[in-house]
UniProtKB/TrEMBL annotation, chain A:
The chain crosses the membrane at residues 12-30, 50-68, 75-92, 98-121, 128-146, 166-187, 208-235, 247-267, 274-295, 301-329. It is a multi-pass membrane protein. GO terms for molecular function: transmembrane transporter activity. Keywords: Cell membrane, Membrane, Transmembrane, Transmembrane helix. It comes from Ensifer adhaerens. InterPro entries: ABC_transp_permease. GO terms for cellular component: plasma membrane. The lineage of its organism: Bacteria, Pseudomonadati, Pseudomonadota, Alphaproteobacteria, Hyphomicrobiales. It is found in: Cell membrane. This is Sugar ABC transporter permease.
Automatic annotation (TrEMBL), chain B:
It comes from Ensifer adhaerens (Sinorhizobium morelense). Pfam families: ABC_tran. InterPro entries: AAA+_ATPase (IPR003593), ABC_carbohydrate_import_ATPase (IPR050107), ABC_transporter-like_ATP-bd (IPR003439), ABC_transporter-like_CS (IPR017871), P-loop_NTPase (IPR027417), YtfR-like (IPR049716). Transmembrane segments: none annotated. It comes from the Bacteria. This is Sugar ABC transporter ATP-binding protein. Belongs to the ABC transporter superfamily. Residues 9-244, 253-501 form the ABC transporter domain. Keywords: ATP-binding, Cell membrane, Membrane, Nucleotide-binding, Repeat, Sugar transport, Translocase, Transport. One of its GO terms (cellular component) is plasma membrane. CDD domains: ABC_Carb_Monos_I (cd03216), ABC_Carb_Monos_II (cd03215). It is found in: Cell membrane.
């Protein structure tokens, strides 16, 4: 058991180091960064803010991890967020109950995933193209649902999902924590994780071994759609309205980036949901950190890019080889010298 | 001790250490001008490592390399090419979607005004290939030609680029007899031109046909270098495996035991464009050998039985009851197992561990909701690693890091773990070393004695004769003959493959 724990923490080490370094850097430029206080039965502070603001990308990253592990990619998640936000808003304003609204919305997300999954698994279209279809069309669909306007609502139940709190934590944080743990448990406590990794590494060999490849592929995209639906509900609840044009805009790229920072290869195979969640938190820390540090906003994107390039360089194979090389050099200096003589 | 003048390439006391293992231990290798030098050894003996040290793909940890008497230190394969050492691998490492000419001149295309001069390039390509008795349309894509032709194009490119030493790493593994003959004519011609050729293969017949000298490695150490003409085959095999396994591999055919009742009955089974409809009965405790040339429909027969491709005609019966075998999952549910021919693309799941590869099919059959516990996975993996002598540092090693023979055993373990009743093996001994070869042959016999039904496809007729209780001969995607009992001899099989008229269809 300790061995498993050790290998697990070792897997997450680079991400944890990167996160700690960024948080430390931000705390230099913004001294009150680590301060937490309780107001109205809820924790407030920059750290909590990061966890709260990061909720959509964390959720998207969870689904994206599983899709990428199958050697796929889901470009449509941002657009699916917009669709689901619009569906939720229009459902609640047309008088459906909260439970019904949630059901319809989550169902819509899963349906979007089913569409992507069928294109990829049954029609054998390359994932990047297959999901591009919904990425482009999705915003149009969302605009049709909202009829071109920002659809606002004031149902307290739905708003609670975006800005309420429970056990001192903002509700979005609770949602992604619970959902993330749930998915990770399902994937790792059943054989799902291994079968998904097998498909990602070698789809043909997996099929020949009797793995239900198409079903699992479709399920992966459906999970991604479900994640996007939850993220869409949170995003809409947060602003008390559905904005078909801007909800989830470019977030698919942040989600992919989160998975990459989490160390899951875009070529499929081994994946870690915890590492991707950390990746999403890293991205949000950078966003919040830049905001807090008071740089002129026009620098934000460039600073973000620079930090991300730095993290990715640290993770790149040449850098890893260099580290291993240095470690080996230190360990084997004496024997090498003897050999040289 | 030879002087440098005799040798074109002279590698002395080459060391290479990998974390946890010494891959090469002071290995000497000397290649003369105008000789074909076979480099032999079991998988994991260090052949590939030695070649990679010579071509700069690996940096050696010790030893010197002399080329034409001058010390060289190939930094990478590009550097080695410039020095004069070219390599052609089993999997042709060219670009299949480019034309033949583009492949030949990739990276050094003749230019005019800064643009690629396609006309000159194509003309030069044709001239170059004339030396190889090849009259190709050099403007066609490389993958419109057979693997053998692609292989020759790769050789032509390597020789044109390098011109002193040519290393052929298992070039014949996927070629049929005619193609091998064509390749060997070219090798002889290059040899006459004074090239030193290193030839790595698992086919001992080919070693005796083409090579002048043989160097054998075992466990990273040099066993010896001998003249081919004076080295007995038995002695060679015992040099390679260090055991007297020679007799076992080429054992005389055993009389088949009494086989059980017919369990699997395929009637009029076929698929358009793949394999003509055939009838086939398989008994319990029977090994049905499938013989035929490459492209005769051997693999297609296996794939259709396993449901990898759906049959579009005929019926399948198991123990007298009709069964659907329209997908691998359905076939597996009926306790079928299938080790495909192409280990790398259809067999192993490279990045996953040996353990995961072994439990994969069993887990897939149980479904994802019923995971095999880690303890049980470890038990299964350890059991088969021991039982099949899979050589791996531990069960968590990614399977792609294992040698071919050990990968093949792990795939076999994957199916044995599902306790199959009908096991289909497509070229189970291709591209693996002599030791593992003998073990797999013994395993096939052991499984048959336990009452399993097997179908084995193999290009090695002697091997088929050794373990088959019946042999089905294929030609032009048809089952053309079925040999049993006394008639199972290499001569009879060859005659059946060669004859053009129908004889007692299967």
């Amino acid at each position: 058991m300790t061995a498993i724990l050790r290998s697990y923490s070792l897997r997450l080490l680079p991400q944890l180091i990167a996160l700690a370094a960024i948080l430390l850097m931000v705390s230099f430029v913004f001294p009150g960064f680590f301060r937490l206080e309780i107001q109205n039965g809820r924790l407030y502070g920059s750290l909590i803010d990061i966890f709260n603001r990061g909720a959509p990308v964390v959720l998207l990253a969870i689904g994206m991890t599983v899709v990428i592990a199958t050697r796929g990619i889901d470009l449509s998640v941002g657009a699916v967020m917009a669709i689901c936000g619009a569906v939720a808003a229009s459902s609640i304003t047309s008088g459906h109950s909260l439970a019904m609204t949630l059901l319809i919305t989550l169902g819509t997300g899963i349906l979007c995933g089913l569409w992507n999954g069928v294109l990829v698994a049954i029609l054998d279209i390359q994932p990047i193209i297959a999901t591009l279809v919904l990425m482009v069309a999705g915003r149009g669909i969302a605009q049709l649902v909202t009829e071109g306007a920002i659809l606002t609502f004031n149902d307290p139940g739905l708003i609670f999902l975006g800005s309420g709190s429970f056990a001192w934590l903002p509700l979005p944080v609770i949602i992604w924590l619970v959902f993330g743990i749930l998915v990770a448990l399902i994937v790792r406590k059943t054989a799902l994780g291994m079968l998904i990794e097998a498909i990602g590494v070698n789809r043909q060999a997996s099929t020949l071994s009797g793995v239900l490849t198409p079903v699992l592929l479709i399920a992966a995209y459906m999970l991604s759609g479900l994640c996007a639906a939850i993220a869409g509900i949170i995003a809409a609840a947060d602003i008390k309205g559905a904005d078909a044009n801007n909800a989830g805009l470019w977030l698919e790229l942040d989600a992919i980036l989160a998975v990459v920072i989490g160390g899951t290869s875009l070529l499929g195979g081994r994946f870690s949901i915890a590492a991707s969640v950390l990746g999403a938190i890293i991205i949000q820390s950078i966003n919040t950190g830049i905001l807090l540090s008071g740089f002129p906003p026009e620098f934000n994107l460039i600073i973000k890019a620079a930090i991300i390039v730095f993290i990715l360089v640290l993770q790149s194979p040449p850098a890893r080889n260099a580290f291993t090389f240095l470690a080996l050099l230190r360990a084997s200096r004496k024997p090498t010298e003897r050999q040289a003589r | 001790m030879q002087t440098a003048g005799d040798n074109l390439l002279s590698a002395t006391r080459i060391d290479k250490v990998f974390p946890g293992a010494k891959a090469l231990d002071k290995v000497d290798f000397h290649l003369r001008r105008g000789e074909v030098h076979a480099l032999l050894g079991e998988n994991g003996a260090g052949k590939s490592t030695l070649v990679k040290c010579l071509t700069g793909a690996y940096r050696r940890d010790g030893g010197t390399i002399l080329l034409d008497g001058v010390e060289v230190d190939p930094r990478d394969t590009f550097n080695a090419q410039k020095l004069g050492i070219g390599t052609v691998y089993q999997e042709v490492n060219l670009l299949p979607n480019l034309t033949v000419a583009e492949n030949l001149f990739l990276g050094r295309q003749p230019r005019r005004f800064g643009f690629v001069d396609v006309g000159t390039m194509n003309r030069q390509a044709r001239e170059l290939l004339e030396n190889y008795e090849l009259d190709l349309d050099v403007t066609r894509a490389l993958d419109s030609y057979s693997v053998a032709i692609q292989q020759v194009v790769a050789i032509a490119r390597a020789v044109d680029l390098s011109g002193k030493v040519l290393i052929l790493d298992e070039p014949t593994a996927s070629l049929d007899a005619h193609e091998v003959e064509m390749l060997f004519r070219i090798v002889r011609r290059l040899k006459a031109r004074g090239l030193g050729i290193v030839f790595i293969t698992h086919f001992l017949e080919q070693v005796y046909e083409i090579s002048d000298r043989i160097t054998v490695l075992r466990n990273g150490q040099l066993v010896g270098t001998r003249d081919t003409a004076t080295l007995e085959r038995r002695d060679l095999i015992s040099m390679m495996i260090g055991r007297e396994l020679a007799a076992e591999i080429h054992s005389a055919r055993k009389e088949p035991d009494v086989t059980g009742p017919v369990r699997y009955r395929f009637k009029d089974y076929g698929r358009k464009g793949h394999i003509s409809p055939f009838d086939l009965d398989v008994r319990a405790g029977e090994v049905v050998g499938i013989a035929g040339l490459l492209g005769s429909g051997r693999t297609e027969t296996a794939e259709i039985l396993f449901g990898a491709h759906r049959a579009d005609s005929g019926t399948a019966e198991l123990d007298g009851k009709a069964v659907q075998l329209s997908s691998p999952r359905r076939a597996i549910a009926q306790r079928f197992g299938f080790c495909p021919e192409d280990r790398k693309t259809a067999g192993i799941v490279g990045d996953l561990s040996v353990r995961e590869n072994i439990v994969l099919a069993l887990q897939a059959r149980r479904g994802w909701t019923r995971p095999i516990s880690r303890t049980e996975q470890n038990r299964l993996a350890d059991h088969y690693i021991r039982a099949l002598d899979i050589r791996t540092a531990d069960r968590e090693k990614p399977i792609r890091l294992l040698s071919g023979g050990n990968q093949q055993k792990a795939i076999l373990a994957r199916w044995l773990a599902t306790e199959p009743e009908f096991l289909i093996l497509d070229e189970p001994t291709r591209g693996i070393d002599v030791g593992a070869h003998a073990e797999i042959v013994r395993l096939i016999e052991g499984l048959r004695e336990k009452g399993m039904s097997l179908m084995v496809i193999s290009s090695e007729i002697e091997e088929l004769v050794a373990y088959s209780t019946r042999i089905v001969v294929l030609r032009d995607r048809q089952h053309v003959a079925s040999l049993e009992g006394e008639r199972i001899t290499a001569d009879q099989i060859i005659e059946a493959i060669a004859s053009s008229n129908e004889r007692g269809a299967a």
